[in-house]
Amino acid sequence: MKSHSKKVLFGLYNDEEELMAAISGAKSKHLNIMDVYSPFPIHGMEKILGLEESRLHIVGFIFGMIGTLTAFLGMTWIFTSDWPTIFGGKPYFSLPAFVPIIFELTVLFSAIAMTVVFYIVCGLGFGVDNPILDDRITDDKFCLAFQTNDLSGTDVSNIKKFLKESGAAEIHEKEV
Amino acid sequence: MKQFIFEAKQKQFLMGLMALGAVCLVLSYIFEPDSIAEAGFHQRFWSNLLHNGAFFTGMAFMTTFVIAAFVTAYSGWHVMFKRLWEAFSLFLIVGLVIFVLLGLGNVFHLHHLYHWAAEGITDPSSPNFDEVIAGKAGFLNNGWYIGGTLLIGGLWYFIARRMRQLSVQEDIDGDKVENFAYHRKIRFWAALFLPIAAFTGPALIWQWVMSVDAHWYSTLFAWYSMASWFLAACSLTILLLIYLKSLGYFEKVTVEHLHDLGKYMFAFSIFWTYCWFSQYMLIWYGNVGEETIYFKERLTHYPVLFYGNLFVNFALPFLILMRNTTKRRKGTLVFTAILVFIGHWWDYFYMIKPGTLITAQEAAHAGAHEAAQHGAAGFVAGFTIPGLLELGIMLGFVGLFIYVVFHHLSKVSLDPVNDPYYEESVHHEVQPYE
After folding, report:
1. A24 near A35, Cβ under 8 Å?
2. What is the pLDDT of residues B115-130, one digit of tens each?
3. pLDDT digits over B383-427, tens only?
4. Which of B105, B356, B400, B403 is deepest in the core (most CB within 10 A)?
5. Contact call for residues B253 and B414 (beta carbons, < 8 A)
């Protein structure tokens, strides 16, 4: 997933309250936030960042339906034409007996599809190298990051100034 | 507004509903379907009383159970509207009166709802003797019915009342006691109630509802009917909360709380279907004669009840409530809540009416046992599908239920300010984005 390198300018905060205030400040200044990193989930963060509803459940629905159809059509084909078998004196096509398997394949398909798609979308998984901006963002630092590839020098210095004013304890630049 | 005022206008309206219900009950006493009218059992009246009594009493019982489960599980989000549920739970006492009436009806043979209550059913020399039921007489007897209802139902009511008393008392001086003493006491009763409800709930459901088909039994029946009760209580909670909010009460109950209630309605609709289907499929697959006859009877003579039940209680809530947005919009939430409420009332109709009709037909044509078993063909007013009288009686009971709830609600402050989970409930958030 490493197509080209990103230049990242980020500030590290000591407290999540400062981070939240900084995000609101950046939003009001129309600065383009790349991402926010925190050691733990922060209540109300999504609203301030303006995140949209995840579309992952659409994947779940579509693959769930594929699972439903696979199980239903598969079992119908197997037990009525490919290898008709009588179980307990029931007809070849016995819908109630199919329902548990239909249900299970629906759950299986949607669960696996959502996991796989989630990993792909997030760029996670085996053999993928994910650069970390700073080791302490999984411990006790709160990070607000901006991408500066296409920004002019004045813009970058503006962001730096903003980070300093909003109370960032440290400001770093890193190429990832 | 912290204090609910039960206005005269509301009282009149609910009284009107109750009057309508009472008139319909009397009419159903008079208009007995032709096929069993001669015997003079008034089966339609008694089965309506049983149907609505079981349905509404069960809602109160399940609400008590849910309060206990939530308190034991450290739940905080429901605290904002817990007064409503506490008021629900106090309907138990009204339900007990109905069931004691029905039990006395058994003793004095006023009705033929239960085959096991017939005279001489355990006496081998009697023409009424029934070997299968005689074998179950240790449980299916009048002592158990009335004694169980009084003891178990009384215990439920006692604990429900105790939990509410403590919760109301907490409001008054909960901030002065140490260590959340009131909440700890509620926790004690709640934890005590969970096993009690788990063991005694099914016992009473078997007595009240399942034993109308005295020959038949299903070990899943209690789960299935309790899920039905919970869904009915949940949908009525949503409807009442939205109504009371529109009057200006419960202003701290937000769309987030309603969203979670909608989730409960969605999830338990699936749970209900799971129970329903497990019961159906195991009996269908096992194909044991005395079990299968139950579904054979219903599929042959009550197809509308049978498939309508699945459609309204599974397909519709499942499809409508699947999206997040429908759980957050009042319109769809109210629509689905009404559907689910009527759907589960329909479900109890389906549990009770076919069995009581067969029992009445058997008793009316005593001796012609076999013929009566399969003689339910054709449309029977008030039994094949709910008639207008049945709908009127349902409205009457809805009026009675809401009257009792509002009566208890008006006695206490709606805002449980001293509950340890109050703040958590105020800031309850389900969906962090718009």
Report:
1. no
2. 898 888 888 888 888 8
3. 888 999 999 999 999 999 999 999 999 999 999 999 999 999 998
4. B356
5. no
Strand, coil or helix: what is B250? coil
Secondary structure (H, E, C), chain A: CCCCCCEEEEEEECCHHHHHHHHHHHHHCCCCEEEEECCCCCCCHHHHHCCCCCCHHHHHHHHHHHHHHHHHHHHHHHHHHHCCCCCCCCCCCCHHHHHHHHHHHHHHHHHHHHHHHHHHHHCCCCCCCCCCCCHHHHCCCEEEEEECCCCCHHHHHHHHHHHHHCCCCEEEEEEC
Residues in B closer than 8 angstroms to A97, CB to CB, are 281, 285
Residue B116 contacts residue B127 (beta carbons within 8 Å): no
A2: pLDDT strictly greater than 60: no
Residue A124 in this model has a pLDDT that exceeds 90: no
Selected residues 390-429 of chain B with any CB under 8 Å from a CB in chain A: 427, 429
Shortest CA gap A108–chain B (Å): 17
| Global confidence as pTM | 0.90
Cα–Cα nearest to B9, from B261, B253, B247: B247
Query: Cβ neighbours of residue B383 under 8 Å, at least 6 residues apart?
Result: B33, B44, B47, B353, B354, B356, B357
B155 token code pair = 């215990």
CB-based contacts of B356: which residues, under 8 Å, 6+ apart?
B43, B46, B47, B50, B112, B113, B212, B383
> What's the complex ipTM?
0.81
Q: Tens of pLDDT along B219-251?
A: 899 999 999 999 999 999 999 999 999 999 999
Contact across the interface for A88 and B285, Cβ inside 8 Å? yes
Phi, psi values for residue A172, rounded to 5° = -130, 160
Please, are residues B79 and B424 in contact by the beta-carbon 8 Å criterion? yes
- State the best of B270, B271, B279, B284 to mutate against chain A, taking most chain A CBs within 10 Å: B284
Tokens describing residue B154? 């009384």
